[in-house]
Amino acid sequence: NAGVTQTPKFQVLKTGQSMTLQCAQDMNHEYMSWYRQDPGMGLRLIHYSVGAGITDQGEVPNGYNVSRSTTEDFPLRLLSAAPSQTSVYFCASNFYRGDTEAFFGQGTRLTVV
Amino acid sequence: KNQVEQSPQSLIILEGKNCTLQCNYTVSPFSNLRWYKQDTGRGPVSLTIMTFSENTKSNGRYTATLDADTKQSSLHITASQLSDSASYICVVSGNTGGFKTIFGAGTRLFVKA
């Protein structure tokens, strides 16, 4: 049972480039989410999904897009990378939205130069 | 404003010693509080959950307490081990304008031999 799988683990982008962070879970969880983790701050919610075909914005959605075509996959797209998007990104899944135990992926360390 | 404040920011202790990490929150109405452990380069993993009616809960050498009246929680680690070196994150969930989960910035614990 792999849990939540995130790829890549590390990425360097140039300003203006786009990329997609991949996230997959094999626990049949309804709720999936993306967070960014910056030094000295708590994890901040970027986007979330309560089920296939349903997504919504979190606290810091600007510059990011998501889609949820299947229960398993929840990719995060950076449209035009900026240095302010340098961060560690975590994908997480919960059994359902009100279930507060989140299962996290290993994270993607993204640097935008 | 819903907030979760953790102290200290970082802590260094000798192997075998005990320590206590603090979490103060202003999230209201309160649903539950979780403590997560985040090893370096990994995603957070849930240690324990505290609900409104619970005062103390243990998970091995980890003991969490909750005072819902003063909105404070603590995580006590007994007989620390080198493997306890990690960040410990307090996460509070509440039904405030829709179900929300707010992450503290974490306490970075270093256990030295």
Please write out the topology.
The complex is a heterodimer of chains A (113) and B (113).
Chain A: E1 4-7, E2 10-13, E3 19-25, E4 31-37, E5 44-51, E6 54-57, E7 64-66, E8 76-78, E9 87-94, E10 103-104, E11 108-112
Parallel strand pairs in A: 2-11
Antiparallel strand pairs in A: 1-3, 3-8, 4-5, 4-9, 5-6, 7-8, 9-10, 9-11
Chain B: E1 4-7, E2 10-14, E3 19-25, E4 30-38, E5 45-51, E6 56-59, E7 62-67, E8 72-77, E9 86-95, E10 99-103, E11 107-112
Parallel strand pairs in B: 2-11
Antiparallel strand pairs in B: 1-3, 3-8, 4-5, 4-9, 6-7, 7-8, 9-10, 9-11
Summarize the structure in words:
- The complex is a heterodimer of chains A (113) and B (113).
- Chain A is mainly β.
- Chain A is 0% helix and 49% strand.
- In chain A, the strands form two sheets. In chain A, strands 2, 4, 5, 6, 9, 10 and 11 form a seven-stranded mixed β-sheet that branches.
- In chain A, strand 5 (44-51) and strand 6 (54-57) form a beta hairpin.
- Helices cover 0% and strands 61% of the residues of chain B.
- Chain B has no helices and eleven strands.
- Chain B has strands at residues 4-7, 10-14, 19-25, 30-38, 45-51, 56-59, 62-67, 72-77, 86-95, 99-103, 107-112.
- In chain B, strand 6 and strand 7 (62-67) form a beta hairpin.
- Chain B starts with a strand and ends with a strand.
- At the A-B interface, loops of A face strand 4, strand 5, strand 9 and strand 10 of B.
Query: What is the number of strand segments of chain A?
Result: 11
Pick out the low-confidence regions of chain B. Answer: none
Most extensive interface between two protein chains, with residue counts: A-B, 19 and 22 residues
Q: Please identify the oligomeric state.
A: heterodimer
Query: What is the averaged pLDDT score of chain B?
Result: 94
Helical segment count of chain A:
0
Largest sheet of chain B: 6 strands, mixed
* Shape annotation of chain A: globular
Order of helices and strands of chain B: EEEEEEEEEEE
Percent of residues in helices of chain B: under 10%
